[in-house]
Amino acid sequence: IAWQSVKTYEDILYHKADGIAKITINRPHKRNAFRPQTVFEMYAAFTDAREDPKIGVILLTGAGPHTDGKYAFCSGGDQSVRGEAGYVDESGVPRLNVLDLQRLIRSIPKVVIALVAGYAIGGGHVLHVICDLTIAADNAIFGQTGPKVGSFDGGFGASYLARLVGQKKAREIWFLCRQYSAQEAMEMGLVNCVVPIAELEAEGVRWANEILDKSPLAIRCLKSAFNADCDGQAGLQELAGNATMLYYMNEEGSEGKSAFLEKRDPNFRQFPWRP
Ligand code: 2NE
């Protein structure tokens, strides 16, 4: 696949090719831990991919290996910039802006696939949990560290994780802070498949291409339907927003707008009351 660089960032790489966007966290010296700047850049790249009608699938991955030979997807918040009330950006403001990114990944009406090589730990683990699908390399290592390092993610990081692996396993993951192999992750339903590290990206592209052959509107509605099951009113808003979009796209919805603009009464009697 002939990746084209979209824009140069400090902490991430952003590429596109043939309907696929690829966002790579590029801080291998920190096991791809994110600082606020990293998250701002990821948010911008995800927003660009969302707005691009040619893009249907977004791959999220981590650069590597580092010079010590180790791989990482992401090791969570950069503890070296953690201040009194979050992770401190260059202007000195502490924030937890990864929570905004989590919501964007979850609600973006395209398929987001995490490609995990090496560590997916802490807030980095939550990022793969949020993605629609996860393809793990055989060297992937999964785990939460919050209670060990004085943090926790009680949002999607706890509740959605429990939807994936069940309550008992999710509590084990958070309360014991163990690390799990790719095979263990597969057995607990945390990932979709495990492939040799050398095949990770190619497998991601293969899955993306299978998805790109499918109906964009069907995938869009399915994603929001899966979200609606867990996301309360925000989930219903997404699902209903798609219903509104489809209504705008058909003749019956357009009749209301046309009648208003043409200063006439709408003729809704021409449309059937379907069973
Ligand atoms: C990821 C892990 C298990 C890797 O271990 P290992 O032994 O392979 O590497 P090492 O030596 O620990 O790390 C290599 C370099 O990366 C830095 C380290 O400090 C080290 O730097 P140098 O000594 O070479 O200079 N590094 C790794 N992770 C970092 C991090 N998160 N922040 C800053 N520097 C990091 C091992 O490194 C590990 O356990 N990392 C910490 C994982 C962690 O606890 N993450 C934060 C969880 S809290 C969170 O992410 C969060 C949240 O809970 C809620 C909201 C937002 C964020």
TrEMBL record:
Listed InterPro entries: ClpP/crotonase-like_dom_sf (IPR029045), DHNA-CoA_synthase_MenB (IPR010198), Enoyl-CoA_hyd/isom_CS (IPR018376), Enoyl-CoA_hydra/iso (IPR001753), Enoyl-CoA_hydra_C (IPR014748)
UniProt entry keywords in alphabetical sequence: Lyase, Menaquinone biosynthesis
Catalytic activity: 2-succinylbenzoyl-CoA + H(+) = 1,4-dihydroxy-2-naphthoyl-CoA + H2O
Entry's EC annotation: 4.1.3.36
Residues marked Important for catalysis (site): Y87, Y248
Pathway(s) where this gene product acts: Cofactor biosynthesis; phylloquinone biosynthesis; Quinol/quinone metabolism; 1,4-dihydroxy-2-naphthoate biosynthesis; 1,4-dihydroxy-2-naphthoate from chorismate: step 6/7
CDD domains in the record: crotonase-like (cd06558)
Binding sites annotated in the UniProt record for hydrogencarbonate: Q144, T145, G146
GO BP annotations listed: menaquinone biosynthetic process; phylloquinone biosynthetic process
Coiled coil: none
GO molecular function: 1,4-dihydroxy-2-naphthoyl-CoA synthase activity
NCBIfam families: menB, PRK07396.1
PANTHER family according to UniProt: 1,4-DIHYDROXY-2-NAPHTHOYL-COA SYNTHASE, PEROXISOMAL (PTHR43113:SF1), NUCLEOSIDE-DIPHOSPHATE-SUGAR EPIMERASE (PTHR43113)
Family label: Belongs to the enoyl-CoA hydratase/isomerase family. MenB subfamily.
Matches recorded under HAMAP family: MenB (MF_01934)
Protein name from the UniProt record: 1,4-dihydroxy-2-naphthoyl-CoA synthase
Gene: menB_1
